[in-house]
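Our consortium's second objective concerns turning raw sequence data into structural hypotheses that experimental partners can test. To show how far this objective has progressed, the report includes one record in full. It was chosen at random from the queue rather than selected for favorable results. The single chain below, 409 residues long, was entered without modification.
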Amino acid sequence: MSEHREIQTTCVIAGAGPAGLMLGLLLARAGVDVTVVEKHADFLRDFRGDTIHPSTLEVMHELGLVDEFLRLPHTRAPKLSAEMGGKTVTIADFSRLPVRHRFIAFMPQWDFLRFLAEKAQGFPNFRLIMQARVADVLEDQGAISGLVLETPKGELTIHSSLVVGADGRNSVVREKARLDVESFGMPSEVVWMKLSKQPGDPNEVMGHAGPRQGFVLIDRGDYWQCGYVIRRTTFADIREKGIEVFRQMVIDVSPLPAERMQEVRSFDDTNLLTVRIDRLKQWWRTGLICIGDAAHAMSPIGGVGVNLAIQDAVAAANILAAPLREGRLADADLAAVEKRRGFPTRATQKLQLMMRSSRRTDEGDDRKRRGPPAFIRGIARFPLLAHLAGRLIGLGFRMEHVRVKQGNL
């Protein structure tokens, strides 16, 4: 028998992803009563962004958690490489970054999220509710004042001073709050799959560029997470042609032995991700703000989406913790978060669009199109650019630091 329940909190965050849990942890640490709601029953989903960037490791250090965090299973990439003309080219080098941990850590996102949730739940003013799907937002005289959720036990209404939409690129919160979205460029697709890791395989995280697609390897310890980038709509065409055609297309750009693709027995062993670049025209309205992918969906280039989401969360906590704790939250505070994070979002998306534009230009030239995108060719010609790329990928255009102090609980 279902029942209707109501609870009160200072801040309710929709989405227990990197942005939502990091913000929840930081606000709870600062003494704010915070509730995070997540539609799934657990964090176990494949093919999520699993890069922990140097800027995120710096945040973990500032929280005093990095040593414990890095004891979790992970692999480290002090640089990112790509294959070009049969040679391995460094396209991003993190060795000169002004931070303590100069590498990207590849860690299953469920481990990262479980770690954040465990630390947040150490504060009595933090609550995490799983299997709670957003059905609607509450409005009171034009202001957002909470969420209506569907749970296995029935409807749950949460009243709050602030609603945070951190529920991803298909955000229900931003849809129900009627926030306008701008899209940029044409969507593309990435087909993800798992392949076993064997002796003699490449020992670095690599990206391989083909005529109209790329191939990415992410080291998961005992297997490879592989991403095959294709043009929009072609996956449907590939499916019609059959699994053998798909296997051969991947073999043509993969550095792994051809027989490894036999592990992909059918299309059921693949996972399709539609990639788009968009952002909200305005991230907030009275009583609500969106962060992370809910505010700005990114291309997976460089794995910067997770990095930006964490940086959004840190900036939001720095700006909003005191007003929330003291009961004086105003529109100006929400606008300040967007102003702070707007520039790095726009700059990152502009860079990603430039990279994609270079690739489309190459497609018009039969001689060039069999090579990698123009930006990779540029880095290959001028190796010092790898350090600049390392800074942009590793730290972003504006790196955030934990400013808010631990509050009295």
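The partners drew two points from this record. The longest helix spans residues 331-363. Confidence is low (pLDDT under 50) at residues 208-212, 358-370. Both points have been shared with the crystallography group to help prioritize constructs.
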